[in-house]
Amino acid sequence: MDDKGINQILNWLACAGVSDVIHDNEAVAQREKEEITSLEQLRKVIEHIDSPLKDCALNMVFGTGNTKADILLLGEAPGAEEDKQGIPFVGQSGQLLDKMLAAVGLDRSLVYITNILPWRPPGNRTPSNQEIDIFRPYVLKHISLINPKVIVCLGGTATKALLQTTQGIMQLRGKPTHISAIDAVIIPTFHPAYLLRSPSQKREAWCDFLKIKQLSLPK
Ligand code: URA
Hints:
By secondary structure, this protein is α/β, with parallel strands linked by helices. The chain has helices spanning 3-15, 25-34, 39-47, 53-56, 80-85, 92-103, 129-146, 156-163, 169-172, 192-197, 202-216, and strands spanning 63-65, 71-75, 111-115, 150-154, 177-179, 182-189.
């Protein structure tokens, strides 16, 4: 609608006795999200989100991999290397992730990878609840555009953000679950960065990845 049209509506509302018009940012954002029908559109909308995270980051990190994949891996936020390259999981954690995929016969051409936050938080701090609330609806949109069968939440932050739970990763890992907003199985597992610090847990992660692969296969 052009300015003339908006003025006509405002005049009409004034005549009808309306003195205050509340600009509902949430409603605008909601409509915008509903109108997104492609990954390119989503990328552009996210690029224009007014977030202070952008001021400290070098690049936006959107997603990578097979856009028709049955498995979507959801991380927390870009680290230093991802920020430099604009690609998720290309640093040390990414190298371990590649090995974990290979251990069950998968690779990046068979999965899609994205994060809860598209910009690196300064100093790699954990995303705040406010940041998660802002970006979660865009993550849901991202997931619906890929339409995977299985979503793998890598680590506690991605798990809490997607499932909106306070339960920890130790209780939830390896357990297939669902949420009403998404038509896919969700499996939380350990974040590769945690496995780099606690290699004794790699066996559990490997079991989770076997299950993930199994759930992604045609029935
Ligand atoms: N850790 C994440 O959660 N995501 C990345 O992209 C890299 C490291």
